[in-house]
Give the backbone structure.
Amino acid sequence: MFSRRYLALWCAVLLLVFCAVQATAHRLSWFWLSVPLALVVLGVFDLRQKRHAILRNYPLWGHLRFLFEFIRPEIRQYFVEDDTDEKPFSRAQRTIVYQRAKNEVDSRPYGTELDVKAVAHEWISHSLAPTQLENHDFRLTVGVERAQPYSLSNFNVSAMSFGSLSANAIMALNLGAKKGNFAHDTGEGSMSKYHRKHGGDIIWEIASGYFGCRNDDGTFNPEKFARQASEPQVKMIEIKLSQGAKPGHGGVLPAAKITAEIAETRGVPMGRDCISPATHSEFSTPRGLLEFVERLRQLSGGKPTGFKLCIGHPWEFFGIAKAMLETGIRPDFIVVDGAEGGTGAAPLEFTDHVGVPLQEGLLLVHNTLTGIGLREQIRIGASGKMITAFDIAKTLAIGADWVNAARGFMFAVGCIQAQTCHTGRCPTGVATQDTVRQQALDVPDKSERVFSFHHNTLHALQELIQAAGLRHPSELRAHHIVRRVSSHEVRLMSELLKYLEPGDLLRGNYRYTLYEKWWPLARADSFAAQGLEACVTAR
């Protein structure tokens, strides 16, 4: 309670005591007690209110932030020339999330604030015969042929682990998912008691550390997996191969940051670094990956099982596709994580310069599955900076069946992008294991915001689908999206992106250099490309 976060409140208390002493000695009018008394009352109210986590963690101080936010739109045009905080994913998008999470009107007067003449500006074509849909509960079925297929929302919570996020943040996300009937991905940190508390639908992510289903030496334990996977709350199983923020890197959770609850959830010992290897120990080839998919599907009782990856070498995914053809084993879904994806901590070079961006990665996966005739049998999810309904519509138009969002839902539970995730001193209690800080995040209030953000974003998607004259998001295609490519030219996305026709790769009709060059070199029995050096030298 004597943390610097409460310094302003303690100063107000001391000032009140000082004024009271002076007034008692008749050196000061009793009237002057009203100022410090008002500050103390306000500070106590800040501690007890549940709407603003910042005010609970920073009584009195926190009001300065809201003051600056209030006056900023008015002073910005006069005093701010180079707004360094306006990153591609910052204030404008956070504002959309906050408005929708709080059920505030997000309409704007005086037209667009975007430069519609800017190169790369994109929009969705509207129809003169718009449709009228009954609701925005857009869903799709994953694992139709499985024993336990799942009806999945088009918009879900992306992978964020307990440990990276606080217990209260996890509970708020899961309770919001329960209210809105959408899915909550556990992240690689496994399924904690906080995921289970409110019973929201779970996508259990299994990564290279096999957290929650591991032996003491870090290898996979099928009995532990089957026990947790059989829980009714678990709807799908997702094998994580890589993530967009740091593909091919792995990670370490230092021993100092491992609490008893994290150790219990992940099945790791206290006092030792928690290692997430860069590769899996259960398989080392495309064929081995698919065999592991089938194994988890059987152990889970027939629940939809797939994998998530950020695309790197194209021949590696082509090898997985060839393994599907050779073994007859197909994942029920594939989640493509774009290089735009975020994380609590990663080397700068990895966040900025490793991994294929979502659009290109998604297109490659969609085209490959189409080219081998399996696109209709395998669902594709996509993640990477999804905020607005247009983000969703564009991604579905390119080739995805559903999208996942992480930071949007983090904003909904109170994240302000303070970028202190790695320090444990998150000001809003979202990304910390500090029990005092995270208690500032009120679960019932923030879960309602999670629900509202999902609800209002899908409502906005419904309006876009209606305006385009469509009946369901699954009808979106690349020709519905338009991009300005220069100051004097606009093109349909279908003219800019290269698509394969069903069965093209099976017939040897490669169409484009990417497939012509790398598809013949891909191997089902190895992630390495056959004859790679000769191919590179020849070209």
